[in-house]
Every structure is written in structure tokens, then in C-alpha cells.
Here is the input.
Amino acid sequence: MNDVCICLFASAGFDKAVQGLAGAGRRLANDLGGLLRAVILGTRSDELASAIASVADTVILADQAEIAEYQPETYLNALARLCGDLSPRAVLFANDTYSQEIAPRLAYRLGGSAAGDAVEMRVDGDSLSAGRQVYGGKAQAVIELKRRPAVVWLRARSFAPAAPLPEAGKITRAALEVQADTRTRIVERKREQGGEARLEEARVIVSGGRGIGGPEPFETELKPLADLLGAQMGASRAACDAGWVPPTWQVGQTGKKVTPDLYLAIAITGASQHMAGISEAKIITAINTDPDAPIFKHCRFGIIEDYRKVVPLLREKLTGLQK
Ligand SMILES: Cc1cc2nc3c(=O)[nH]c(=O)nc-3n(C[C@H](O)[C@H](O)[C@H](O)COP(=O)(O)OP(=O)(O)OC[C@H]3O[C@@H](n4cnc5c(N)ncnc54)[C@H](O)[C@@H]3O)c2cc1C
Here is the structure.
């Protein structure tokens, strides 16, 4: 079968990431000559199902009580059953933490192949491959996915949305017998601090590094600047590892890959591992006291100065512009 399955979680909205996922799925399905099928796991998914039906040929809801809430092993079992039955050529995920946790395991369960953080999907005859950026975005690695199905999770905002179909796709409920996982148990859920969850989708990011000097200036200096810019907050690994800000703020090779229009790197040196997360930022602006900091080789605008002098001036200017 040459169908493409996109996997969604009911907790997601029909946001840019999901629209991009559907867009990537539709183009791949067209290239393969198959259908685009959407699978949604979790309860309270009706709204998402109607939205996704506007762009997918079929929508399958798996909303049994056992999978009401995300639980990795149970979701994996359900997806393995569903995708096993549908037998698609490719299974695509967005790049959220649930997807990253499940996708490689699903590939293994289905005997398929896996690739992560893809910015491109290519079909060439029988061959299916995924492109991902390497060396901080200076080159692209092309990974051929030889085993079926190809299970791929996509980088946010790298794929255009799908055009609506003339007639909405059919929505059905999966008759699944889901085995709830007895080996692991969710004991507590903590909501991430406001704003940080959608760092991958942010248009403007104010990010701080070790040179910020501690947790307080993130609150007193950077946060007010971010608020004025309508920006999300990010950080280097050094700042996260120091415990100044939550680990979910980390941008980079082992953190989040972001694609904002403006990335403001404040007191961040610009190590290659950090740059790997911002290679698709349209404009990088850096504030750093060290004129030799590597970040200055990558930024469009650079200010060699102590951030404690520059940030208050920026805030003042922005406040003036808002009056
Ligand atoms: C396998 C691996 C994976 C990694 N993954 C990541 C990752 O995902 N993300 C990531 O960020 N890093 C990652 N790192 C770490 C990375 O190599 C760097 O160590 C880290 O990015 C450095 O963070 P930093 O720039 O905040 O700190 P530093 O290197 O300490 O730089 C601080 C900067 O602040 C400047 N500064 C100091 N005071 C001021 C001031 N008052 N005003 C203005 N500027 C000032 C300094 O000149 C300096 O350039 C990884 C490393 C490894 C080995």
C-alpha cells in the first residue's frame, strides 16, 4: 500500500505543526499515489477530527477509555495495531515530545525504518528518503528509508499546510481492543510554564545564555523584553543546566529546533551545538561582550556590549514605540 498515515494526539490543536504535518503527508501521498490517512489518539478529539478531515482522505479516531490520556506504552500498542492494519508506506509525526518518544519505537515494532527532524521528504521511484539538516544547517543529510513503513517525525514549520479538500474525508472510530499498560503508571502531570510549550512555533524568541549570570535577570531583564516583543523565552544549555530556567527552554542540538523570524541571542556564545537549533531562524541578533564570540559569525545584527546596558535601552525604545 502506498498510503501515508499521519499520527496525532487529541491534546494537539489544529495548529501550525499539525497543518504542516498534514501538508507533508498530502504531498507525500500524492507522490506515492496513495491516500492520506489521519489517526488521532485520545478522547475529546472531535474538533481536531473535523479540522483534519478537511485535508485528509480518512480520519480514524482511537478514543477508547484506555487511551484517554497519553501513556507511551498504551499509545504505542494502539498505534502498532492501527498502523499494522492500515499497512501504510509511511507514518509521519510532528516533532513534539510524545511523537519523539513513540515514533522510533513504532518503527521498530512494525519492522520499518525511522528518521527524525526531517525538513524534506523525497520519493524517487521506489525509494523514499528524508532530508535533515546537519552541521548547524550548513548541509543536508539524505536518509533513505529502505524498510516499510518509513516512520518519520518532522521539524516544525518546515512544511507548508495542505489545501482543503473539495469534500471532507470520512471520520471513523477504530474498533480497537487496547491493552492498558500495567508496567508503567503516570503518577503526576505538571503543566509546563506558560509559553514555553510552543517554542518551536514561536515567531520571535528571546534567548539567554550563561552570560546572563543567574536566574533573576531572566525574570527581571529578559522576560519584560520578551513581553514587549510578544516573544517566547529560550535559553542555552548552559543556562538550563545551571537550573536558572526550565530544561524545556533549551534550544540546540539536544534541545528544541526553532524556526523564528527573529532570534535574539543574549549572552550566548554561539557554540555549534546551540547553532544547530537555530539554523532556520530568519534573523539572528546577538548581544555579547566578546567581539570574538562565534555567534557574531552567524548573526545579521550584532551588538558588542554588556546586555545589562543594551536590554534596558531596547525595552525603553520598544515601550516608546508602543505609545
Ligand atoms: C553533545 C552536546 C550537546 C549539546 N547540546 C547543546 C544544546 O542543545 N544547546 C546549547 O545551547 N548547548 C549545547 N551544548 C553545549 C554547548 O557546547 C555550549 O557549552 C553552550 O551552548 C554554551 O552556552 P552559553 O553560550 O550560554 O555559555 P558560555 O559558553 O559560557 O558563553 C557565555 C557568553 O556570554 C557572554 N557574556 C558574558 N557576560 C555577558 C554580559 N554581561 N553581556 C553580554 N554577554 C555576556 C560571553 O562573552 C560568552 O560568549 C552541547 C554540548 C555537547 C557536548
In short: The chain has a mean pLDDT of 92. The radius of gyration is 21 Å. The pocket of flavin-adenine dinucleotide is lined by residues 209-211, 236-239, 250-255, 267-269, 271, 273-274, 277, 287-290, 293, 306-308 (CB under 6 Å).
